[in-house]
């Protein structure tokens, strides 16, 4: 729980830095693997809310999707997203589709989200 809270509170400062991204991915994978439990699902949803917040005029998810390091977080999120989380991602990706399709990493995020089964 402490690691989940740390991730939720600090994702904005870590998504573009190679070293912290390894920790982010490890914590996020643990959160996803435990998301069947209501408390962990709540943490995962809080993380997604934080990852969708505006950062320099765009959602943090979009900023990370365009970044060579941050994309790793986005791909894991896209691969794991279900139900309302997936709907939120689809909405943001459709809103920023033209920006994403012009970036090699953005194209990977679009493809990952399209390949995710509900």
Task: Describe it.
The model has no long low-confidence stretch (mean pLDDT 91). Strand 1 and strand 2 (58-59) form a beta hairpin. The protein contains eight helices and two strands, in the order αααββααααα. The protein has helices spanning 2-14, 18-33, 38-51, 60-65, 71-80, 83-95, 97-101, 104-115; strands at residues 54-55, 58-59. Helix 1 (2-14) runs parallel beside helix 3 and helix 2 (18-33) packs parallel to helix 5 (71-80). Helix content is 75%, strand content 3%. The protein is mainly alpha-helical and 118 residues long. It has a two-stranded antiparallel ribbon.
What's the short story on this structure?
The chain has 118 residues and is mainly alpha-helical.
- The total of beta strands comes to 2
Residue windows where pLDDT falls under 50 for at least 5 positions: none
Order of helices and strands: HHHEEHHHHH
Radius of gyration: 13 Å
| Structural shape | globular
Major beta-sheet overview: 2 strands, antiparallel
Number of helices: 8
Major sheet: order of its strands?
1-2
| Average pLDDT reading | 91
Q: What is the straight-line distance between the termini?
A: 27 Å
Estimate the helix proportion, in percent. over 70%
> Which structural class best describes the helix and strand composition?
mainly alpha
Q: Which strand-content bin applies to the residues?
A: under 5%
Task: List the keywords.
118 residues; mainly alpha; two-stranded antiparallel sheet; 8 helices; 75% helix
